[in-house]
Amino acid sequence: MRLRKVHPIDLNSEYPCPCRRKGKLSNIVLTEAMGCQLCQNIFVLSDEGECI
């Protein structure tokens, strides 16, 4: 069994939306959440900052 390296999510980067891959997640100012530009969903980071 291979272990995957876990990289913390960088709030200053953009990521593909898990709902619609065409959308981009970006940081919501003054929060620890990210929002999609297309579907308007809000995603909250885990306590470790490794997943949404």
What multimeric state do the chains show?
single chain
Question: Widest sheet: strand order?
Answer: 1-2-3-4
SSE order in H/E notation? EEEE
Q: What portion of the residues fall into strands of 2 or more residues? A: 25-35%
How many β strands by DSSP?
A: 4
Unreliably modeled segments: none
Query: What helical percentage do the residues reach?
Result: under 10%
For the CA atoms, what is the radius of gyration?
A: 12 Å
Describe what this molecule looks like in 3D:
With 52 residues, this protein is an all-beta fold. It has no helices and four strands. Strands 1-2-3-4 form a four-stranded antiparallel β-sheet, with no helix packed on it. The chain is globular.
Q: How does the SSE layout of this entry go?
A:
Blueprint: E1 15-16, E2 24-27, E3 33-36, E4 42-44
Antiparallel strand pairs: 1-2, 2-3, 3-4
Summary keywords:
single chain, 52 residues, mainly beta, 4-stranded antiparallel sheet, 4 strands, 0% helix, 25% strand, globular
Brief summary:
This protein is an all-beta fold and 52 residues long. It is 0% helix and 25% strand. A four-stranded antiparallel beta sheet has the order 1-2-3-4, with no helix packed on it.
